[in-house]
Structures are given as structure tokens and as C-alpha cells.
Amino acid sequence: MSVLVTGGAGYIGSHMVWALIERGEDVVVVDNLSTGARGLVADGAHFVEGNAGDGALIARLIGAHKVDAAFHFAGSIVVPDSVAEPLAYYANNTVVARNLIAACVEGGVKNFIFSSTAAVYGEPAQSPVAEDAAKQPINPYGRSKLMTEWMLEDAARAHDLRYVALRYFNVAGADPKGRSGQSTPRATHLIKRACQVALGRVPQLAIFGTDYPTPDGTGVRDYIHISDLVAAHALALDHLRRGGAPAIFNCGYGHGFSVREVVGAVERVTGHRLAVREEPRRPGDPPSIVADAARIKRELGWTPAHDDLDEIVRTAYAWESKLNSAG
Fold it and tell me: Of the N and C termini of the chain, which has fewer Cβ atoms inside 10 Å?
């Protein structure tokens, strides 16, 4: 049997592919390379350039490779862009996911792991936020992901399909072995941008919003190392293959750092003072969001191994330095 990975040439997907190959899985990657990079795909994976929402393509791959599980990472993730171009986000996130789910159901793929987001919570009334908190997304990105969660829930009731949706908080860092990292040219991830400033590739780091109701006025996020996130996905796959019930889990550490605290960590790790400029809040950004990760620890046995902001920054900086040296 094989595992299908959509978006496997992207940031999170490429790390997942490396982990699956190391587990001895046969992996089929589908990526349209709109934001991914072919060079990030692990040796040994079968790569197909194409759209995850192309039902005919997915059907052929499921049949040819005897796919028993699918990981869906392909999608658009920039919150302000979703506010400016909502229909594009519904097309690339919700519609593509619907077509992929349909192809999996028709092809007999019983296990589906979905890349969801903490943005489904919007501005939660309590923090840390648990999985059963109200879902009130404040931007089209979060709405598009929540719609896919609903589709999976309904499809699982009607068909022989089990799923795990993992709600990511702020994914950061890079593969400790240096094989992959955040490589999207227009990436807006704070830690990546801060490392770019430290390396002189970007002149200044913009801090969007300094008047939030947080201890230092800047946004607070729960940053999770990419390696711990990938480990959570592997546990989700094992859960489903054992016949586990559909489930939704938060992926975060349960504590947050402000933008200014992240800037301090980057300065500490790199030894470079960062030039920053303060900007107004960006549309669609909540003041603070931190995970309650008790459920995934309890039900899947997930134990983070990289819960350290400086380590996250070190791996991200090493990857950015590698990109710098490559031109």
C-alpha cells in the first residue's frame, strides 16, 4: 500500500514525506509547484506535478499505487490574502479538498489526514483553547478550513472513510538534518522573516500591531516545531490504520510568545540586532491564540521533543543560511 501526500513539495508536506520515507512507506507526492519546490521532495518518493483537486488524476494515482491513506497539505495559507481574495481561497482550499475527498471515497482510500488550522477558532474566549471551543473564524482562510472539516465529518458518516484533522497553531523551524525548510518566496512566517532580516536579505522586520490586549501589545502565538508537527501526523496515521475513530486534535505546545519575544529570541540566537518597524494591525489577525494540547497527548501519546523557542529559531536560521549560501 502507498500513502498519497498532496502539497508534498511545500514546507510542511516535504517534511512529512521525509518522515514517511524513513518509516519505510511508499509515498506518492502531488504538488502543482505554485509555492512548493521540487528539490524539497525526498529521494524515493514518486512525484507527480498536478493539482490535488484534479479528480481524474487522483483516481489514477490511487489505483496505480494502491493508496490506503492520504495526507492533504495543499492549500493557500496567507491570512491577509484570504481577506483580499476570499473566492480564491475557497477555490484552492475548500473546492480542491472536496474533489480530493470525493476521489478518495470513490477509490476506496479509508484513511485521510487533514491539515487544518487554529484559525477555525477565530478569537477564542478562553486561552489555551481546546478542540471543543466555539468555531468562529474571523477570516476566509479559517472559514475555508472549517468547511473542509465539516465535509470530512459528513463524508465519514456516509462512507467508509476515517479521518484526523490536525489544527495547527504556528508552525516554525526546519528539519534538524537540513533537508527541508520554509522556502516559499512570499512566506509571511514571523520567524522566517526575522531570520531573513538577521541575514541581511530583508532590510526590516514589520511588526503588525502593537496595541493588542497582550502583555507587550504585540500578537501572541503558540509556535510548534515542524518536527513535532510531523510526528503528530505519523501518530494520526497509525491511529487510523488501527481502525481508530475520526478525530480532531490541536497541534501546539500550550504556551505562547509575543512578536517582541520572538524578535528577542532571533537576536539572541543569531547575534544580530534586528531593524524593526511598527505597522498597523493586519486584517484577520487575532490578538492571541494558544493551544490546549491535552487531547492529542492523551489519545495519541504525542510527546513533543522540540518545545524550545531558541531551538526552533536555530533550525530556521540554519535553513535560511543554507538558502542564502545557495544564492
Answer: C
Each residue's pLDDT tens digit, 265-298? 999 999 999 999 999 998 878 899 999 999 999 9
pLDDT band of 77, cuts 50, 70, 90: confident
Does 182 score more than 80 pLDDT?
yes
What cell was used for 295? 487531547
Q: How far apart are CA 297 and CA 308, in angstroms?
A: 18
Using DSSP's 3-state secondary structure scheme, residue 29 falls into strand
Helix (H) or strand (E) holding 237: helix 226-241
Interstrand relation of 257-258 and 220-221 (parallel, antiparallel or unpaired): antiparallel
Q: Are 1 and 67 in contact (CB under 8 A)?
A: yes
Phi, psi of 31 (to 5 degrees): -150, 135
* Global confidence as pTM: 0.95
DSSP of 161-195: -EEEEEEE-EEE---TTSS-----TT---HHHHHH
161, 104, 239, 132: CA torsion to nearest 10: -60
Annotated catalytic residue, options 141, 212, 223, 317: 141
Name the burial class of residue 264, with classes exposed (0-12), middle (13-18) and buried (19+) by CB atoms within 10 angstroms of its CB: middle
Average pLDDT over all residues of the chain: 96
Element (H, E) at 114: strand 111-117
**Does the annotation mark 141 as catalytic?**
yes
